[in-house]
Amino acid sequence: MASSSASIIDATIKLPQIAPQDPFVKVVKALAAFFVDEIQSPATFDQLRTAPAGNKIRAFVNYLVFNVSNKAIVNALLTLKWHFSTLEMDDRRLNETRANACEIVAWRFLSKLSERDAMNFCLYDLPQQTPVEAVEARRWREDATERSNLLPQFRARDHDVPSRPGTSSQRMNLLRSVSHMGYIFSSGEDGAEDEEDPTSSFTGLNALEIAAVADCKKFLSQGVVQKIITSIWKGDIIFWETLSTTTKKRAQFYSECRPDPFTRLRVPRYIKAFEVLFFATFLALYYAVLVQRNPNRITPVEIVLYIWFAAFTYEELGEFIDAGSIFYVVDIWNGCDLLIILIGLAFLVTRIFGLAKDNTSVIDASFDILSLEALFMVPRICSLLSLHPYFGTLIPCLKAMVKDFVKFMVVVAILYIGFLTTFTLLARDSFTLSEMSWILIKVFFGSSYIGFDIMNQISPHLGPPLMLIFVTMTNILLITSLISILSDSFSKVISRAREEYLFVYSIYVLEASTSNRLTHFYPPLNLIPLIFIRPLRLFVSSEKLRKTRIGLLKYTHFPIVGTIMFYESIQERLTTLDASLSTAWVSRESQSQVGKPSPFLSKRAATNSSQHLLELGTEGEVSDLDHEHTARESNNTRPATAHVDILGIHKKIDELTEKLDALTTLFMAQQNFSSDSPDGGQL
């Protein structure tokens, strides 16, 4: 079946040849050539999913499933999605169509794989090129001719700018690499062959990380991808098998047969749970210091608060190094963390200076600075609410509205400065600059009567008409325009509420699981290796240092690990108890249902039809319908009825299966599917 499908596809479209060991740059080039050659007419995202315009994409997905086993295929598709999205908007919107096509192919490809294969493709970290691969990739780029599929329309405009400046952040490196990716797609002229491979910036990133950086929100919201992310969150997928010096980071399913309890310290939901606990104690210490407000000396509670500040700062530094600037920029809560650290440093400096100089005013100012921490610490402890769909949707809405508000305030500031200058010069004998500034601010925020009361004092002749113009522009034109803009921003984000929430949730999980460090010390225990182990790096080998860190982690975190294992044992017992109660209930119901008609579709029918559709290699739309029937059967149908041995029911099931087979064959012949699952199917 696979060979026949491949032969049919080869006769209709030009397919790329991708070998299992091809370097990442070659995979990107081959895929880019396909999308540029085959997608020559614009189409929307929905049209590519459901209309005949997406027939080539469906055929291409089948080809990838049957013939391509390169581990970097999903990474390359999402990288190309980002590349096409960054290109200049053309009149026909072909670049946008190609970007959407890359995203659709990526999640449809995953939806046709097994659970383990989908995990391996999504969590495959791009390796560094070996010297042989680098030479081969360079020679391959130099052999490109003017008949290359991506023409100079994709060549970066600024040939003098290097592709990877060492002083930029990692996200800026990736963005520059994506924008300069036209070098490897264009011909070898103009010195393009001398450029460094821009895809090397993606080394060490997996497909989910690339999707998060490239804002592939539709890809991350698909069911097959969300199942992987949720498994990472719960700890069903882990990256470290054991806590030893020989272990390597590798995505794998958690097995209870050979459990290492200390690897559960890297599970994102436990990291976030203890992070909330840390912030709760942090907030309690903060309030205790403000309530005491000792101006003469540093109290023991204040010393503990400084320890918490140091642990929090070191933890943020570690997260920034592990995840880089990629997720640190995307996650909105990291902005609160930076402000908390800056305010804490300002408090510490002014506090020490005030005590050293015995200056009461400086000491009071230090506590005033500390009081600003509540503006960010209270919301930060509630960041766990981002996992709830309502709050996870509300946060992106507020973020988009703040961006539009800041942009609009530039126009407001320009008009305000103009009127302020005029009014101040006209009322130079009556009001000062500061007084006039506050008067106009009050008028802008709705106190129009204040402006009308003083307009004659500003100028008997010019004051009234100018004030009337200012009030009209601010209270009617500008305020109404601002409300309209913010409403439009809110409606745009809320229209894709599910995508926005799942994007925030995915970032939340990936940020906690992207670290390459084997040992992760929870704050404030992270200060222990900083003080006692980090200085040993000067004269102790890395292997002994790693072994020492592992031993220290086990010694200091065994109470936390015990708490985690106790929680998981209780959860397992509750699950077992629930399953036993369900089994007993099913047994009683099966006895009472003997002789009664069974449901129209049994679990056996759903299973048989699913297997048959998969053998035919049908599209994700049909298999999604089968998964929906299976899920509905397992949730809403009493399992006992599926085991009732009635010959008549089995005969009807066989007839129904034959009808489904005929219907499926008809769909494959027409190549026109009228429905498409937005989730890309379930695993």
Automatic annotation (TrEMBL):
Residue span(s) of domain Calcium channel YVC1-like C-terminal transmembrane: 279-574
TM regions (residue ranges): 273-291, 326-349, 369-387, 408-426, 467-486
Pfam families: YVC1_C (PF23317)
Record's keyword terms, sorted: Membrane, Transmembrane, Transmembrane helix
Protein name: Calcium channel YVC1-like C-terminal transmembrane domain-containing protein
Organism: Oidiodendron maius (strain Zn)
